[in-house]
C-alpha cells in the first residue's frame, strides 16, 4: 500500500519534470525565476502602470468637471 502512493508521487514528479523540459534542480528553478521576472516586467507591470495612469487621468477629469459648474 505504501509503495503504491510512493510510486504515484514518483510518477507525478517525473511527469511534471518532463513537461518542464526535463531540466532538474537549480537550473530549472533559475530558468523559471528568469522567465517569471521577464514576464512580469514585459507584460504585467506595463499593463498595471497603464491602468493606474488611466485611473488617475479619469479622476483628474472628474475633479475638473465638478469645478466647472
UniProtKB/TrEMBL annotation:
Source taxonomy: Eukaryota, Viridiplantae, Streptophyta, Embryophyta, Tracheophyta
Transmembrane segments: 21-43
Keyword Transmembrane: yes
Superkingdom of the source species: Eukaryota
Name of this protein: Uncharacterized protein
Alphabetized UniProt keyword annotations: Membrane, Transmembrane, Transmembrane helix
Organism encoding this protein: Citrus sinensis
